[in-house]
Amino acid sequence: MITKLPIFYLMIFLPLVTIIMLAKGNLINAYTFAILLMIYALIFHPLISGLKLIAAKKIPENQFWYTFLPGWNWKHFSFLFFNK
Q1: Vertex 36, ends 44 and 82: CA angle to 5°?
Q2: Maximum pairwise Cα distance, the chain
Q3: Which of 23, 25, 58, 72 has the smallest count of CB within 10 Å of its CB?
Q4: In this predicted structure, what is the pLDDT of residue 30?
Q5: For the segment 28-50, what is each residue's pLDDT rounded down to a tens digit?
Q6: Rounded Cα–Cα distance for residues 38 and 71 (Å)
Q7: 8 Å CB contact between 44 and 36
């Protein structure tokens, strides 16, 4: 399911758009925005990317934690965002 590109895009971009819309609507302050953005960038995005890579058998399960290392997912960028 997560290997389908539209589902992946929805799972990646919907939370980010939600955070931005909350900030634009003045529903959250700058501090909350920064915390949510850090959670998104450091936890949520690598989690979803890692799950997609495991589901597609691009990485073994024991390498899942590597997705949380900054920059590690760049070598899988074309697969993650274009399924190539």
Answers
A1: 40
A2: 42
A3: 25
A4: 96
A5: 999 999 999 999 999 999 999 99
A6: 15
A7: no
Which tokens hold the place of 22? 């909350």
- Of 65, 76, 70, 69, which Cα lies nearest the Cα of 8? 76
55: its two tokens: 């589901």
**Which single residue is written with the structure tokens 């900054």?**
70
- Per the listing, tokens 């959670």 go with 39
Q: Quick one: tokens of 75?
A: 């070598």
Instruction: Please name the residues in contact with 66: beta carbons below 8 A apart, sequence gap of 6 or more.
Output: 50, 59, 72
Residue among 54, 74, 64 nearest 1 (CA)? 54
